[in-house]
Fold:
Amino acid sequence: MRGIGGAVTAGLAAWSAQAKTILHISDVHLNLTLDEMNYGFDSSPRLLESALSYARSVLHDPDLLLYTGDAVAHIDHNESVLAKTVQTGFSMVQEYFHVKNVTAILGNADFHDYEFYVTDPEKGGTNPTIGMVDAPWKQALSPSHFEAFDSRGYLWYQIEPKLVVISLNTVPYSVKHKPDTKYLDDPFNQFEWLRRTLVEVQTNGSYAYIVGHIPPIIDSYGGESQWELKYMLTYQAIVEAFPDIIKAQAGVPLFASGAISPLFGNSPSFTVLFSYNADTFDVEDYAVYATNFSTSGDSNALEWTKIFSAKAAYGLPSLSSESLRALTHRMKTDDGLLHEYYRHSKADSTRLPPCTTSACLDKVLCTQTWFSTVLQYRECLDERSAERIGIPHWLHPFP
Structure:
């Protein structure tokens, strides 16, 4: 949606009018003691080094690096290991890219899994959860930006005179968040701040990209909501009130980068967003780069390659809202296109089963509509099943 509030980082404030490229790296899940590079494992330092080296060869100096959380492996850690892992991963990124252009975003694995203590940002001070892993950003952010991040985990960046990036703290909205704070209508007062920030963006005649870690969607893998319902509804109401200024989000959050970690059988990947329109700030294209591990397992020299670009792969004239809605309609009658979309979402991994059954393809299609509830998502699946046997579609037409 993979955001925003605070003072502007010097490097981001100086983003020139000609800057048109964004590098997106997510879900590294670095295991400092691991040497293996293969499916079924999190990222070893060697794997992250390989990914960063290749990314720099593709995009030597990105204008913005979206580093969207989950730096730590899927194993139990004490606080010192958490801090060391986050610091090490960020330092490796720093070796290849300008850290002042890197977003500060936390994922659910960047501390004890999904455990994020909600505090009152109005009182200031370091949030105890953020404080465990905040060291890398103390040098990368301006003092006022770091103070805001350290107390609440969300920021905004003015990256051009008419463009801001809003980075959200999405962990408290998760259905898995601990401790249970569902009784809070607005954890960290983030929704109030988001509304106020978007009003200011609109008043200034500017545009916004919103980024974060946990997307506000129904996940096709398990058919489960990623956010608590009331937070999903609040967020949807906010962003739907600003359709003309929020970019790179046409209904369903658009640019969800794949993971560097190959733990779940996906190929390690990262995303390059190529250029945006200088007048509208619509993203014009994006490409995904990945590596497939050899069948023999570990390799000292991974081969990375561009596996697809969106416009070419899906026959799109642009990535405008209209083009993406048209793509969804084409997917309804083209199972081959649906399967290609699914395959690309897994970075063309050969270790995952193909999505060729009607049940699997329907799940992929129904995630293209931004449903609020699991019930709506299941109704979509039922309607797709009915359509396949000739019963007319009439309940919830795709937009």
Q: What stands out?
A: The first strand starts at residue 21 and ends at 25. Residues 1-17, 395-399 have pLDDT under 50 and may be disordered. The CA atoms of residues 186 and 192 lie 8 Å apart. The longest helix spans residues 79-96.
